[in-house]
Model the fold of this input.
Amino acid sequence: MYLDRFVNGTGQYIDDLKFPNMLYMSVVRSPYAHARIKTVSGGLNALEIKGFYNMKNDDNAEPIFAIDEVRYVGQPVAAVFSENRYESEDLIEGVDVDYEPINDAVTTIEASLKSKPIFGLKNNILSTTETGKTFDESEVKYDIKVKDTIDIGRVLANPMETRGIIADYRNGVLHIYVSSQSIHRLKNYFVKSLSQFGISEKNIVVHHVDTGGAFGLKAAMYPEYIAACYASMKYKKPVKWIETRTEHINSAHGGRGIRADITVYAKNDGEITGLDGDVYIDNGAYYVDTASDDLGNVIHLMTGPYKIEKAHLYGHYVLTNKSLNGWYRGAGKPEAGIVMERMIDLLADKLNMDMAEIRLKNAIDAPFKSPLGLEFKTPAKSLLEDALKYFDYEKKAKEKNVGIALFMLDQDAAPGETCRLIVKGGIIHVYFGGDVHGQGHELFARSILNKELGVEEDKVILELPDTEILKEGVGTWGSRSAIIHGSALIKAAELLRKDAIKKFGKYDKDILLNNEFDELYYYKVDYNEYTPNFNMVTSDPHDPDSIKIYSYYDIGKKLNEKNIMGQIEGGAIQAISEVLCETIRYSEDGQVLTTNITDSGLLTADKIPEFHTKLVENPSGFTDMAKGVAESPSTGIPIALARSIEVQLKTRINKFPIDRLELFNRVL
Amino acid sequence: MMVNIRVNGKQYKKDIEPRLLLVNFLRDELNLTGTHIGCDTSNCGACTVLMDGKSVKSCTVLAMQANNHEITTIEHEDPELDAIKDAYVEEQGLQCGFCTPGMIIESFYLLKNAGDKEVDDDYIKKNLRGNLCRCTGYRSIIDSIKKANKNIKEREEIHVSR
Ligand code: FES
Ligand code: FES
Done:
């Protein structure tokens, strides 16, 4: 089992794999946030590979290696290779790049909006989208209007294992081993990006390996991956690239990075009648497909659990001289919740209303089609009432350091997931379409098959798939794993049972294990599940050790309680650092000021909060009845913590991280 | 240069580059890949090993500094280390597993050196500050260490007749 493998140090992470004659790749990167490249000599560079990697070949796609221009510090300019890891780093020195710096870099949304156009467009906005219907003030009934700007800083995934890949071109087939959340999603990218080098879909196989955390980062495509593949095809040798942490901080795609200018219209009794505004995403220096999920989630989910009749939002992709936008745990969902809840608290303060009362007033109490286009089937009001009672909000609120959060967890169930079961040698080998990277898929695979098929848990092994053994698959992200993998597994187990009966006239576990079977099931789903959830936080801002987290989560069905608690505890510490101190810092001229992983703001073991958790089980409509959890703490805890600090400090909190020195010093 | 390094009770004699880091010596020369690399700035603790019984970050020690010293890694066979590993499994003190070998070696160290201090949350938290975990939020790691401590203590207790 994975737990045994990992405690014994026998996991096979990407850097643990070694192939004969393997080359190590090191990457020459831009030291400037914006510069023209006059000449490059040495290494593999754009003189040889003049191509793009993100399936879009227009002016704002990022090239694999910089062509004529660099737009952010850390942008790949060339790559060098050696059989010796240290020597490949030495070779970086031998590459000559003649830069002509352009002193016009912009590193914040504000600076970019104010600056003259520097990315070859009419302004620095790459594109604009919108949700809901525009409305005129005269069309909403309101007594009060509150406005604010909420800023959420850039947060990097920073999994303990950085990005890494081995490309091995052998016998005409390119085998790609990669630390990943979805080999199938990556394969799609590889097929599209590598076709320019004459290799086709049937000659590309992507292999999942043990993956040391991802948090959204490892579902995306990166120029280094394509460079490694190209090099392997060129040199006919395996090529390994393992990102250093410093490269990660400079170059890996960063999450969050949102600014929202929002207006909320309400009546004096607290009823919210309208919401509109502009949301800007810090897109980074080039077009990137992940940004549309991040921004899309923010502008679709913002009204969340509330019955608001009218809403309209513009979403703007703002170019900056930074590494590109990427996903980070929640990918736009926490941002939507944070913005909405910060606005509700502001409204409550203006109306002198209790923060629970105003939420109860607006929470949906029947299925509701939101003005931003989503269908919420599960009402939020009753859950809010239950949660407030369960944690004795009334009493705690009198202690005056409470913050609460109500939000809709959007679980990315669609489009479903695949599961293949191969029974051989007395073992059931399980292959899932979504790649595990810390969610414990194997635990529920074992318990579900034990229950469904009566086999002992130690007869079940979760295997690492490749795109041959499992031709289709989706991925592990978006609070979907327990729901979608559990359900696909139950369905595949049903096929096994039927097949056994068909062949042997009856089912028992010995018939199953003593014979060979092979079943594949694609559990298709065409909708996402939206579940209301609740958090409360109490804190003393002068003592971060005092943080107490109260979570009231509807998880449908508990598949493995310890595992669920682990997701909550892990999400909580990330949420706390995001509120207090975690971000990637840039100087005005685009230099990355964050120099290491501690500097990024990750917290250590002495900063953990106290937990009070209630897991409610209202079964979902999926086969295994589960609901998601992993993004709930990322959404609810920042909201409630920010409010709890606001109540204490009596200072409006509209910027994340709060970054006030006295808090920061206490924490780090 | 030649070095003689004892790793997990076994003596290794190797000709190495003077700049080789201990972590690369273990991983690349000896193929002991349980010790991980999580950063290049000595911040994360994924590479934690014991050198003569003291916990060190093997990315911050040159292999030649380990010449004639004794190194203990996650691959070491030892009943106490096994008890810690078992506790991590029981308490699910890991998710992706990448920080785990470093965490377990640090746990091994802090349990061995607790002396008469109580192995409680405080003691563990203070001594675990050099090891980062991005997944678990540390709660289950702390619980694993407490459980390991209990299991080890119970095992050591002998039956005394009245
Ligand atoms: S690898 Fe991060 S401290 Fe050694
Ligand atoms: S378990 Fe993933 S970093 Fe600790």
